């Protein structure tokens, strides 16, 4: 259901790889709600993904950028403002990757060069995005910046290894830049802590199916889907949430407030 919640707003959406991507669903919903935006992803993802299809569907242009490169981000923000004809109202950071997880390294056997890459891609890049936006004075007042996080930032999920530290960093950056951009431009910055979701990044984590089912059975509402996450993100880009900032917002069907559920008790008792 479209309500023109983003009518007249201009944005940048990072991280749509394929139809399963959370960023893909956000782009589709943002278009339905009347936004104009550019899509961006790492140059390598352009070759692997199907982002051209999404761009066509949303009538959006694509500007490749490796989110760890300040130079790429400078080019992205300059071009995005040219294409959209003005400053930016919303940004979605939907980026995550861990070479250690991809290569099956356990927590006790992490490769530290890859660890740094994980932090750079999945955490520090969020700082770089806002740094470039600030330096170019690219954001409109009352704008909204959202990044996607996971509860492994607060609790232990052994297979999430170095990504858990990247998410803790990401959430801390949201608070600190939220303060800064709030003071400077009345821009809000939040993270959404999303349920396990069947995407390329999600299913790459060891034991994904087990913790997907576990979270689903623990949560009174079940796991939040990528579509649900897109709807929540749209609400955070809209003017209905102007005073929400520096928060890590749980979007998990109730998982984070649970101790144990009857479904889990039943499963274990069997
Ligand atoms: P996805 O695999 O569709 O998206 C991850 C994106 O990150 C891809 O588009 C990839 O190309 C992009 N990326 C990787 N390296 C990059 C770089 N150097 N520069 C620019 N982009 C780069 O998977 P998904 O699940 O949609 O992931 C989006 C976000 O949601 C990530 O931050 C992820 O950690 C987070 N999240 C995912 C959950 C899940 O279970 N799928 C749960 C909670 C959070």
Automatic annotation (TrEMBL):
UniProt cross-references to SUPFAM superfamilies, sorted A to Z: NAD(P)-binding Rossmann-fold domains
Pfam families xrefs: adh_short_C2 (PF13561)
Gene Ontology biological-process annotations: fatty acid biosynthetic process
Pathways involved: Lipid metabolism; fatty acid biosynthesis
Residues annotated for NAD(+) binding in this entry: 15, 21-22, 95, 167
Uppermost EC category: oxidoreductase
Molecular function terms, GO-annotated: enoyl-[acyl-carrier-protein] reductase (NADH) activity
Keyword Phosphoprotein: no
Superkingdom of origin: Bacteria
Catalytic activity: a 2,3-saturated acyl-[ACP] + NAD(+) = a (2E)-enoyl-[ACP] + NADH + H(+)
Family to which this protein belongs: Belongs to the short-chain dehydrogenases/reductases (SDR) family. FabI subfamily.
The protein's name in its UniProt record: Enoyl-[acyl-carrier-protein] reductase [NADH]
Taxonomy of the source species: Bacteria, Pseudomonadati, Bacteroidota, Cytophagia, Cytophagales
